[in-house]
């Protein structure tokens, strides 16, 4: 959580939240609490009326504090003056953005909304994906060994178990087994487990006619774990991704038309379902799909690969007994805008070669 928070702050806005250095960094305390209440208000209309309860007041105070932290980030960005021409960070691009007709830049309020959404979208999601992936790595036989083999082949881990050379940006695209591991973990644990869309007209979805202005919740978690759509859906099998690059993954030999009342994701809405390959249901949406899909997915994959490769080069991992095995982890799953576990996932990390690391 701390790493993901500091990376998104520094890489996007040049702001160091210092949450890795200071255990009581406020942003990682207040945002998850605020989001928990958001989820309740999104799914239960009565919750919106219960603003007088202690929990609701605490959550509102958390969101106020989050907004004031974000105001601070924006003030810091502006205090640095106009961004340099070669600064391509998100913050610099927001400061440069101009309205196409009026030529006006973003107001402070608009900047705060953009920066707040980026930080919110970027850190919990990456952090929980990291936790679930490490959990899958620690509990799936043979996976740590295969990751270690790949790291050894690339010189990131030495044959005697000591650390190899530091990871570089060019290495990331070459970590193909690790990429498969991450894709598979995001299949089984899509931390954005579903996302709403509002119908802008009366819309036919399969056998259902949905009126205009209705929120339809698309459950990625269900699509990702359905035995109708995946062979051995409940097995963690990174090799199922070997050679598959389509981010929404259409299975080539998909023949179960009877399981699929509608065409592809893009055919959820529309009167003329497409034919052929395009009509096959797409089934993999860890970053959603379409024009509003995750804008930070490239960065998320960079962070995930870098952190996991670095940890696996140094440690082997074992799920802590207190978690009660994979069943205990499953029992502690909770959905509060993101899918995560109640109190994190505890692991034991053992250094591969302590003496070599110290030297
Ligand atoms: C594993 C990590 C991540 C996951 C699983 C994830 C997933 C998602 C999903 C499912 C959406 C919803 C898109 C939709 O409405 O269809 C989204 C939106 C968004 N994400 Fe991510 N995300 C991740 C990391 C990041 C990072 C690192 C950033 C920023 C640096 C980011 C920034 C955003 C923003 C700004 C949006 C809103 C886009 C819009 O409304 O146009 N995300 N993300």
UniProtKB/TrEMBL annotation:
<keyword id="KW-0560">Oxidoreductase</keyword>
<dbReference type="InterPro" id="IPR017972">
    <property type="entry name" value="Cyt_P450_CS"/>
</dbReference>
<dbReference type="InterPro" id="IPR036396">
    <property type="entry name" value="Cyt_P450_sf"/>
</dbReference>
<keyword id="KW-0479">Metal-binding</keyword>
<dbReference type="GO" id="GO:0020037">
    <property type="term" value="F:heme binding"/>
</dbReference>
<feature type="binding site" description="axial binding residue">
    <location>
        <position position="294"/>
    </location>
    <ligand>
        <name>heme</name>
    </ligand>
</feature>
<dbReference type="GO" id="GO:0005506">
    <property type="term" value="F:iron ion binding"/>
</dbReference>
<protein>
    <recommendedName>
        <fullName>Cytochrome P450</fullName>
    </recommendedName>
</protein>
<keyword id="KW-0503">Monooxygenase</keyword>
<comment type="similarity">
    <text>Belongs to the cytochrome P450 family.</text>
</comment>
<dbReference type="InterPro" id="IPR001128">
    <property type="entry name" value="Cyt_P450"/>
</dbReference>
<keyword id="KW-0349">Heme</keyword>
<dbReference type="InterPro" id="IPR002401">
    <property type="entry name" value="Cyt_P450_E_grp-I"/>
</dbReference>
<dbReference type="GO" id="GO:0004497">
    <property type="term" value="F:monooxygenase activity"/>
</dbReference>
<dbReference type="GO" id="GO:0016705">
    <property type="term" value="F:oxidoreductase activity, acting on paired donors, with incorporation or reduction of molecular oxygen"/>
</dbReference>
<dbReference type="InterPro" id="IPR050121">
    <property type="entry name" value="Cytochrome_P450_monoxygenase"/>
</dbReference>
<dbReference type="Pfam" id="PF00067">
    <property type="entry name" value="p450"/>
</dbReference>
<keyword id="KW-0408">Iron</keyword>
């Amino acid at each position: 959580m701390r790493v993901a928070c500091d990376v998104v702050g520094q890489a996007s806005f040049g702001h160091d939240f210092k949450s890795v250095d200071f255990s009581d960094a406020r942003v990682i305390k207040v945002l998850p609490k605020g989001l928990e209440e958001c989820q309740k208000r999104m799914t239960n209309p009565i919750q919106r009326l219960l603003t007088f309860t202690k929990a609701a007041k605490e959550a509102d105070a958390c969101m106020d504090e989050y907004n004031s932290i974000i105001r601070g980030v924006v003030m810091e960005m502006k205090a640095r003056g106009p961004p340099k021409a070669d600064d391509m960070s998100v913050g610099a691009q927001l400061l440069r953005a101009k309205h196409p007709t009026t030529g006006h830049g973003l107001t402070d309020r608009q900047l705060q909304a953009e920066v707040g959404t980026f930080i919110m979208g970027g850190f919990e999601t990456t952090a929980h994906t990291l936790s679930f992936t490490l959990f899958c790595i620690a509990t799936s036989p043979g996976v740590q060994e295969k990751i270690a083999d790949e790291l050894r082949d690339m010189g990131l881990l030495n044959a005697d178990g000591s650390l190899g050379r530091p990871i570089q940006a060019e290495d990331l695209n070459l970590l193909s087994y690790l990429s498969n591991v991450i894709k598979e973990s995001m299949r089984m644990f899509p931390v954005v487990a579903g996302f709403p869309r509002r119908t802008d007209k009366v819309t036919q979805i399969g056998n259902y006619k949905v009126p205009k202005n209705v929120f339809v919740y698309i459950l990625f978690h269900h699509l990702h774990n359905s035995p109708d759509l995946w062979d051995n859906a409940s097995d963690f099998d990174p090799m199922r991704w070997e050679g598959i690059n389509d981010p929404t993954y259409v299975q080539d030999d998909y023949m179960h038309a009877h399981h699929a009342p509608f065409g592809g994701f893009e055919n959820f809405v529309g009167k003329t379902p497409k034919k052929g390959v395009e009509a096959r249901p797409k089934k993999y949406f860890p970053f959603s799909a379409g024009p509003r899909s995750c804008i930070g997915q490239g960065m998320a994959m960079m962070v995930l690969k870098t952190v996991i490769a670095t940890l696996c080069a140094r440690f082997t991992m074992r799920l802590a007994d207190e978690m009660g095995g994979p069943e205990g982890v499953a029992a502690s799953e909770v959905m509060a805008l993101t899918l995560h576990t109640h109190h994190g996932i505890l692991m034991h990390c053992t250094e591969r070669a302590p003496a070599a690391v110290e030297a």
